[in-house]
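Amino Acid Chain and Its Fold in Token Form
===========================================
What this section holds: a protein sequence and its matching fold, both as plain text.
Structure line: whole-number tokens from a learned vocabulary of local backbone shapes, matched to residues.
Purpose: to set a sequence beside its fold so the mapping can be learned.
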Amino acid sequence: MRSSNSTALKAALIVLSYSVSVSAFWRMPCKGRTGVARIDPLVSPGEIAEHAHAVHGGSGFSSTSKTADLLASKCTSCEVTQDKSAYWHPALYFKSADGKFTLVEQVGGMLAYYLLHANTEGDTKIAAFPKDFEMISGDTNLRNFSYPVPDVDQSSWPVTPPYNDQAFLRQAAVGFNCLHYDVLPPEGTLKRHTLPDKKFLDENCKSGIRFELMFPSCWNGKDVTSKDKKSHMAFPETVMDGKCPPGFPKRLPSLLYEVIWNTAAFIGKEGEFVISNGDAVGTGFHGDFIMGWDVDFLQQAVDTCTNDSGRIEDCKIFTLQAEDKQNQCKFEVPAEIAKEDTKGPMDSLPGNVAIKGPGDAPKGAASGTPIAGGDAKTTSAAGAAPSANNNDKPAANSPSIAGAVFAAKGSDSPAAAANTPPAANSPPPASTPPNPAPTPAPSAPPAGSNVQSIYSTEYRTQGNIVNEIVWIATEITVTQTQTRPTGQKHKHKRHMHKAHARSFQY
């Protein structure tokens, strides 16, 4: 009896048309992750933050980061070396039946879209983010979506209460895209505003889940920040596009974060997914941004990088770096939390954050321990296993596939990717009492099964149609009874199949 694996690559052809116009944009891949830690310079400056964040961008990230600190970074985890901005968001964990928490693999780092939506009247120039500009999108304490599901037609939002209110737009800026590359059609960007439960994910999201977060792009034109890191900004009429509200005359680049989590690695395992801020509903997902570009350079990019392909390669002023360089970039974790386990399995979320919902969570706070104190204690659960390296890099790279809210375009060159299981579990320190058995790593597929994962994508533009071809790797495990000579090796076959592609009209 022998088992053999063959990997078949096929392309999923998804033919869809979208009417929303995008004049120009670029996608900023940040394939490296500079770290996962309880640091948040916007909410908890100078202190240990309440919950853990996955961080991308410049290595100068710290609990007190400003633009100057980021510009002094020795490296960046993004593909464009001139971008040393700080992009961060809560991490996703799996809570198993034994109560243990494990960090879910983040596939391919993150993708930051710079959408160039200009005002159609008044000041039509898109301004670069100014020095020391910072903002937050999302509400970490929110635990419910307060509006009808699904969303009403977007064209009616500007004239229909309550959809023409900033309160709705803030909630509509959060999305959870169920990825199923083998089933058509795909979901649209920002169409689902709550995190599906484990059963739904297991049955429908065979390729994982993509977290999506839109940032406001309408600026009051004077303040680089505000007390809540939000009120100096506002959303346009349809979250991504449309008119800006009164008092916000200036248009900045429209930022969209996309992060893919390998929830498929836990299919069939009892438990639930929870965001690091204690949110199992999803509505408390949020993101932070601090400007880390040279202002004049970013303005030049906004003014001249107007190719509608979205490819950073088409912007000749960008200097690009290889993925291994992106993955090598890490920020320095403060000594006070350098040994805090953020990977697991562990007894609680980092910071001992409780799971709250469906009612809104009480307003959180930092641990109150100054990072500069030198003798600070973390608030993680006793007995949590310290990680040998909390600044771990993603184990795999997967291109992000934008959905139906805007016309997504992408790179012409495929990027290799695979959905791999989370890192092996680390044992608890010997000095701690015995813990329940840790959550096992995802098991191998049964004999005769097929396992699909995204392998790469390529994009081909024809006029105003952008075709996205998603190549899928299907690993087929076959068990056969066969007599073979001693020493003969198993044979592995790889097949290439081109089936279908995805088209976007703009």
User: Anything to note?
Assistant: The CA atoms of residues 274 and 316 lie 41 Å apart. The helical segments are 67-71, 166-172, 198-204, 295-304, 323-328. Residues 24-400 form one domain.
